[in-house]
Amino acid sequence: MMQESVPGGGYGLSAVSAAGAAAAPALGYLPPRPARYRPSIALIGCGGISEHHLRAYREMGLDVVALCDLDGGRAERRRVEFFPNAAVFTDYRKVLSLGGVEVVDVALHPVPRVRVIEAALRARKHVLSQKPFVLDLGAGERLAALAERNGLKLAVNQNGRWAPHFSYLTAAVRAGVVGEVASIDFTLQWDHTWTAGTPFEDMRHLLLIDFGVHWFDMAARLMRGRRPDRVWASAVRTSFQTLKPPMLAQAVVDYPGAQVRICFNGHVKFGQEDRTVIAGSLGTLRSFGPSLSEQSVEVCTHVGRATPKLEGTWFTSGFAGAMGELLCSIEEGREPENSASENLHSLELAFAAARSAGDGRPRVPGTVRRISLHR
Questions:
Q1: Where are the domains of the chain?
Q2: Which of 184, 339, 352, 370 has the fewest Cβ atoms nearer than 10 Å?
Q3: Is the bond leading into 228 cis (omega within 30 degrees of zero)?
């Protein structure tokens, strides 16, 4: 649930200050939190990323009552660090048999995740799925339909949506601050070589799917209501890399009267930068910084340039927002903004880009129904 009103009335920039700088639009960008709903939550999958899930839930005052991992030691370590009263399991089926658990966070890899999500829905649990949601659009559609038939909420942990800069940019676009969007540019130069020697190194589409799905999701979110025409992409190795997957990738998404451009270099040791530029008919939004969590935002319109001061970072706000939106949707009896069915539009872009990078041909989003992450 994103608040989009500006206290005091109106959208866009307020009057120019005496110093000549414009005041930034007051937009609701902080992670949503339910008013009263505090369900018992279970986490299935206690790998590296689960640290950020659990830290966010603890800060939100949520109650995680069960932790599950095939490696019981990993689950036990998470229990000691974050939720000492939680029960530990190595069999997810035992977790799903717990009558008091209402919400299940499934933080597994994509292939085993599908059967666990299906089992959780059949056990009448609301589910938050790790990203990328599925590797087969048909499987995603079936899971979304199963959730709907059972009156349950199925959401996807696209946590980047609630990174402070992305959340503010989205609120500004929806509020009409820069008018009709004509172009969006995402350019990232960062060090992804930490994946060497991990299972991630065996992913053929490491940049475009496992990492890049955040940016395809933001493209779909910012361009909501506009259907893309085509996607073309490429991925190549640097001349000096030793990692298996390409560390350079780019994608272009064409819309009627608009374009989204994404450029990645995941092998930058020094001078990293993450930049987003959204250009519209009435102005431009910019976000830039040395990392995902260190971002400055600018709003440029006819009244001047404004720099809002934002709270939070991706790895706190993002995970709080993904779960918070799911809980708000349950409490308010509506679909979550990060619903599984909505997330399939983001996967259509990512799948088309992955296929295009493989054969060099433009692809129409939705026509590539499945991909494989591995070679």
A1: 177-310+340-359
A2: 370
A3: no
Tell me, yes or no, if the pTM score tops 0.85.
yes
According to DSSP, the β-strands at 87-89 and 63-68 are: parallel
Mean pLDDT of residues grouped by 10 in the chain (375 residues)? 33 38 89 97 96 97 98 98 98 97 96 97 98 97 98 97 98 97 98 93 91 96 96 97 96 98 97 98 98 94 94 94 98 98 97 96 97 80
Instruction: State the pLDDT at residue 227.
Output: 95
Q: Which residues partner with 230 through β-bridges? A: 254
Strands lying side by side in the sheet with 101-106 = 87-89, 63-68, 40-44, 101-106, 126-129, 154-156
Contacts of 311 (CB under 8 A, 6+ apart): 30, 164, 317
At 158 the pLDDT is 97
Q: Which two tokens stand for residue 55?
A: 């830290």
Q: Are the C-beta atoms of 252 and 263 separated by less than 8 Å?
A: no
Between strands 248-255 and 258-265, the pairing is antiparallel
Q: Which two tokens stand for residue 118?
A: 């299906």
Question: Helices then strands (H, E): number in the chain?
Answer: 9, 14
Q: Collapse the DSSP code of 32 into the 3-class scheme (helix H, G, I; strand E, B; otherwise coil) and give the result.
A: coil
CA-CA distances (angstroms) from residue 140 to 15, 127, 288, 346, 347?
A: 47, 13, 33, 12, 10
| d(C-alpha 206, C-alpha 241), whole Å | 14
Domain 177-310+340-359 top-level CATH class = alpha beta
| SS3 call for 260 | strand
Residue 185, both tokens = 């540019």
Yes or no: say if 192 and 206 are a contact pair by the CB < 8 Å rule: yes
